[in-house]
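Reviewer comment 2.1 asked that we show a complete input and output for one of the modelled complexes. We chose the magnesium ion case, as it is the one discussed in the main text.
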Amino acid sequence: MEWEVFIGLETHTQLQTNTKIFSGASVKYGAEPNTQACEVSIALPGVLPVLNKQAVHCAIKFGLAINAEIAPRSVFARKNYFYPDLPKGYQISQFELPVVGKGAVTIQVPAVGKNAAYEKVVNITRAHLEEDAGKSVHGAVEGMSGIDLNRAGTPLLEIVTEPDMRSAAEAVAYAKQLHELVQWIGICDGNMQEGSFRCDVNVSVRPKGTEKLGTRREIKNLNSFKFMQQAIEYETRWQIETLEDGGTIHQATVLFNPDTGETRAMRSKEEANDYRYFPDPDLLPLVITEADKALVQAEMPELPEAMKARFETQYGLSGYDASALTTSRELADYFVATVNAGADAKQAANWAMGSVSAKLNSEDKPISASPVSALQLAQLLKRIADNTISNNAAKQVFEAMWNAEGDVDVIIEAKGLKQESDSGAIEVIIDEVLAANAAMVDEFKAGKEKAFNALVGQAMKASKGKANPAQVNDILKRKLSV
Ligand code: ADP
Ligand code: MG
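Response of the prediction step:
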């Protein structure tokens, strides 16, 4: 039987504020346990929550960025449950009236194997503000568990999608793009190790051609894209096998174990009514006016899609290049800085996405830590453009700059990489090559095109790679045509 997969994501993004969502305690990561647990965080009787304006600002910014409805009036609700890291006995969240309503994110799904890359719209159901809970700490004290309430009250925006994604690749593409977007607009630092961006992934399957969605299981707290991919693939296979063996899927919350690559049920899924949601009587409804939105809009940076379109028209880049460069704001900024420093746009795009990105990836560095600055890259590209060095030599210069061996011209000089552009000298080399490779010349004249490339290779080799390849081509062509 053929099966179809449906995936919906709930993503918790930690908002970039200085203080908690309902108190003035710091949210800085990594402090000594409970040093940031104020009276609101530990829920002393009689304390009252005061809403953090900056958190609201972040929520509005997200809503505007995805063209969503922003509720003129939304309501905070108590989600009641018991857990040691939740001293109040309820989490303040939003339920029936969230701050951000329906919107959409356009994602680029990369090519996999034989399948070409494509674009897809993922619908956002809602995004709501809520507070994070504390953390249980196991093992800090022998034989005991501790509670750290530093994280309690950290502002979160939970972003919920429709079950629009149809494969692990689409889910990962969406998660990556959302991860980029929240950093791009400056509402979340995106640090996945520290838990600033974590995804719950709902997966169901149904026989192809049927109408009703299957029962979903929710994989909790994935904080790496690689694990997300593995977890969805495993979960999908497991559900299909279970159904094909005559079993049934029960709605459940499951955990992914990175060591085994398997998902395992943690608890049966609670229903919304188990939480006894009700409006929090300590908080007024959140009212957002047109003027509030206008203020946030004024701070909105150019968004990736608009920047992509501009790169195509302004710099003549292909759609593919423009969208690759705008996958991250830092990469886009680096590219623009390279062009502004005098490099050719197409070359700057190729190098930024090629050598620079490859090096950064292999060393697991952000572009802000690139040892080759945009200015240095531009200088290098100018030396290719003015024929001082060949593309190949440029790769060597780039390596050397990466290893902090100095500036472009210094390295070219020190390594003797200057290209031979004196046509007289190149002619001498070519005459020698032609004399020494009479067989190849005959092959070429007999119609073997490949022999020409071999001769170019010989000439380049004879010049120790320094001859200007375009000149070698021209001179060789001229000499062979007589
Ligand atoms: P809850 O709040 O109980 O987790 P929601 O109805 O809000 O439930 O849905 C949570 C997420 O689950 C959403 O992202 C939604 O798209 C997704 N989802 C709902 N039904 C399915 C389904 N049958 N298959 C896959 N995902 C689903
Ligand atoms: Mg949920």
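DSSP finds 15 helices and 15 strands in the chain. We note this here for comparison with the apo prediction described in Section 3.2.
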